[in-house]
Design goal:
The protein is of the alpha+beta class. About 30% of the residues lie in helices and about 25% in strands. It is built from three helices and six strands. The strands form two sheets. It has a three-stranded antiparallel sheet, with no helix packed on it. It has a three-stranded mixed sheet with strand order 4-5-6.
Amino acid sequence: MPVDVKYRTTGSATGGRDGEARSEDGAFQVRLSTPKELGGAGGSGTNPEQLFAAGYSACFIGALKVAGQQLKLHVPADATVSATVGIGPRSEGGFGITADLAIHLPGVDRADAERLVEAAHAICPYSNATRNNLDVGLTLV
C-alpha cells in the first residue's frame, strides 16, 4: 500500500545493543545497553524495546487525538498510554516482539473510550506497521 510521505527522518546506531543511537539532526542521542535478561551486562543505557515502547505510546496518543476529532469525542489532555514491549525467541526461529498497550482516558465513558481506542488502533502508524506481524493487546485502564 503506497504512503504519501509527509515527514521523513533518519536515525542511526553504532555498536549494536551496547553502543549508541541518535537522530541525524542530533536532537536525540542515547546510550544503549543490553538487558541482563538477554545476556547483556545491563547498565544505565536504554534498549531498542524501550525506545519502541516509548514511540508506540506517543504515536498512539496522537492517533487517539485524530480519532477524537473524527468521532467528535473529547480526548482528555491527561490521557496516557503505556506500552509494554517484550522480546524473546520465536518457535519458528529468530526473535519476535510483543506489545501491550494500556490506555487511560480519564473522564471518558467506557463505550466512547472503546470507540476511540478501536479507531486509534486503525489510524496509528505503529499499529498499522505491526498488524498481522505481532499481536498487540489493547486494555482500557
